[in-house]
């Protein structure tokens, strides 16, 4: 059985058993705004119900298995109920919390991908427009280039709306502008829609937009370089120099009889420095362009 069939069965089962509870908790209403722009191919009711089912069933199974292990290890029966509740609560919170914020994280990734690719995609659209192509032809060609990431995927959706759903280009551009999480792409699509409906000069419009987006992208790169230099200075000062200072001071205190410094030094070297380095890496990865 394919993965898609398993997914459909899981969603169907979740809707049957947890659909009413999800609707009573108004989970579809809470999740819909972030889910709409995340590109996840599920309705708000399907996603929220499946999330609720996962946050109830998986922790229940894990708590049961953990309780069996505790019984084998000889844990007191009086302590089993608190352990069961604690394990269930921790995993339920992790699964539900992770699933709840996942659409927002997915949306942020899409926005970042669009920001990095839109200037170059707009330049390509300008070239196509200069050759005399209409808007639909431009997006159809753009949809075949995976190099433009999420911009190409949005072009594929526009082509799908026109070819399969029979929607006119102006309405397809309006629908795309409504679902994209990127304010820049939304502005571009609304501008193209207005140009199509009013019969304006598409090539001149795209030339101006490509210059604007490329300027914004250069300013973003300049800002990132400045921030990266500051983070490098902070890392060198706090992690490298600070660690060396701590090791030296710990060694001196140990020689003076101020306790055993080796445990603290080992914790710093094997735990502290790696954790701080990973934190800086995650911070830089979140700030940097792709």
Name its key features:
290 residues, 10 helices, flat, 3 domains, mainly alpha
Topology overview:
Layout (H helix, E strand, L loop, with lengths): L2 H22 L2 H10 L7 H29 L4 H54 L4 H8 L7 H14 L5 H11 L3 H16 L3 H54 L6 H26 L3
Helix pairs in contact: 1-3, 2-3, 3-4, 4-5, 4-9, 5-6, 6-7, 7-8, 8-9, 9-10
In short:
This protein is an all-alpha fold and 290 residues long.
Descriptive notes:
With 290 residues, the protein is mostly helical. The protein folds into three domains: 3-109; 112-215; 217-287. Helix content is 84%, strand content 0%. The protein is built from ten helices and no strands. The chain has helices at residues 3-24, 27-36, 44-72, 77-130, 135-142, 150-163, 169-179, 183-198, 202-255, 262-287. The chain is flat. The two termini are 36 Å apart. 21% of the residues are buried. The model has no long low-confidence stretch (mean pLDDT 86).
């Amino acid at each position: 059985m394919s993965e898609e069939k398993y997914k459909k069965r899981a969603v169907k089962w979740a809707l049957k058993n947890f659909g009413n509870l999800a609707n009573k908790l108004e989970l579809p209403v809470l999740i819909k705004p972030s889910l709409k722009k995340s590109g996840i191919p599920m309705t708000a009711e399907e996603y929220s119900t499946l999330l609720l089912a996962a946050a109830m069933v998986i922790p229940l199974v894990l708590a049961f298995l953990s309780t069996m292990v505790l019984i084998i290890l000889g844990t007191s029966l009086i302590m089993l109920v608190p352990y069961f509740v604690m394990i269930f609560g921790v995993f339920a919170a992790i699964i539900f919390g992770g699933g709840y914020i996942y659409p927002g994280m997915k949306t942020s990734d899409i926005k970042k991908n669009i920001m990095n690719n839109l200037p170059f995609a707009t330049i390509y659209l300008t070239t196509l427009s200069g050759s005399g192509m209409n808007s639909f032809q431009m997006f159809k060609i753009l949809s075949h280039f995976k190099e433009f990431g999420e911009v190409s995927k949005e072009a594929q959706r526009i082509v799908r709306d026109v070819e399969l759903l029979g929607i006119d280009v102006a309405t397809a551009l309006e629908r795309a502008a409504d679902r994209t999480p990127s304010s820049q792409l939304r502005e571009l699509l609304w501008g193209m829609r207005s140009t199509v409906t009013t019969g304006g000069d598409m090539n001149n419009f795209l030339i101006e937009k490509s210059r604007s987006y490329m300027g914004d992208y250069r300013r973003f790169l300049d800002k990132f370089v400045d921030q990266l230099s500051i983070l490098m200075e902070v890392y060198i000062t706090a992690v490298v120099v600070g660690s060396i200072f701590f090791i030296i001071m710990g060694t001196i205190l140990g020689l003076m009889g101020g306790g055993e410094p080796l445990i603290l030094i080992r914790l710093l070297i094997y735990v502290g420095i790696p954790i701080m380095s990973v934190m800086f890496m995650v911070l830089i990865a979140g700030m940097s362009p792709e």
